Amino acid sequence: MQFNIEGKSIKFAEKADGFFALFFGHVNLPEKQIDCVEIAGTRISLESLGLENIAIEDETNTNAYHIAEGSLLIYDPQDININKTRKQISTLAITQMLLENFSIPVPEYMNIPQKQYLHIKYI
């Protein structure tokens, strides 16, 4: 998969313990009035992806180590409806989806109705 901003490919890496890092490395985007990214040839606004270019004041680089909540990016090339939005999602929903994907039994306390997480695409 290719993920581009201003025609430049975004580097990514899978680290230990399943940690996944995106290395944006695009500085001064607001000065260039860059407000969208390109994913698989489709232009999508930063805002609709839940992304924002901000000045990094604590020298943490550009990989979100300083964001306690983390980031969840979901890409589905077969779903072209970009009008689905959700500001927050329960970690139980994410955990339940991951466990089901790997055929691991879901503990009873995690069971939530599937309709609550079936169509989550953009956060």
Helicity level, as a percent range? under 10%
Intertermini distance: 20 Å
* Total helical elements: 1
Give the tally of structural domains.
2
Structural class from helices and strands? mainly beta
Strand order of the largest sheet: 2-1-5-6
Shape: elongated
Largest sheet: 4 strands, antiparallel
Kindly report the average pLDDT value.
Answer: 67
Describe this structure in words.
- The protein is mostly beta strands and 123 residues long.
- It has two domains: 1-71, no CATH class; 74-123, no CATH class.
- The chain has one helix spanning 91-101; strands at 3-5, 8-9, 11-14, 20-23, 36-39, 42-45.
- The strands form two sheets. The chain has a four-stranded antiparallel sheet, with no helix packed on it. A two-stranded antiparallel ribbon has the order 3-4.
- β5 (36-39) and β6 form a beta hairpin.
- The chain is elongated, with a radius of gyration of 16 Å.
- The model is unreliable at 116-123 (pLDDT under 50).
Primary descriptors:
123 residues, mainly beta, four-stranded antiparallel β-sheet, two-stranded antiparallel sheet, 1 helix, 17% strand, disordered C terminus
In short:
This protein is mainly beta and 123 residues long. Helix content is 9%, strand content 17%. Strand 3 and strand 4 (20-23) form a beta hairpin.
Please outline the helices and strands.
Layout: E1 3-5, E2 8-9, E3 11-14, E4 20-23, E5 36-39, E6 42-45, H1 91-101
Antiparallel strand pairs: 1-2, 1-5, 3-4, 5-6
